[in-house]
Design a protein that fits this description.
The termini are far apart. The chain is 80% helix and 0% strand. The chain is mostly helical. The chain has one domain (6-144).
Amino acid sequence: MHKLSDNARLLGYAGLLPQIAACMAVLKGGPAGWSALALGYGYAALIFSFLGGVWWGIALATPGSPRWTFAAAVLPSLIALALWFPWMVGWTWPGPEMIALGPLIAASPLVDRAIGFRAEGWMALRWRLSLGLGGLTLAIGLIAG
């Protein structure tokens, strides 16, 4: 994975479309806005968990990865689950949880860098996608807040 293909780039950016749509629906409000809020949280949590899987795979495939990589790899799923719980039991609606989740997604490329995974083209795309998804997730949380 020395150079990213056009497909990887295109599909990566296409991955922002669900969160863009959720953000627009939350801005619009009404019953669809409430569903979009839950969908936006679910999508962000799913992608955050996926990133943990990527880190797990990098650790398995890269001899000499830091020992902490496997622990870091399971944290996104555990964090997403912990953030999901309060609003599933009715304590809060997902706005505050999205405000917490957005910056974590935005900062996630720091883990890639710390692991030492710096394939050509990878980090530039990772930063753009993570800042995009993290920023949109944060925006939805602030709008909903």
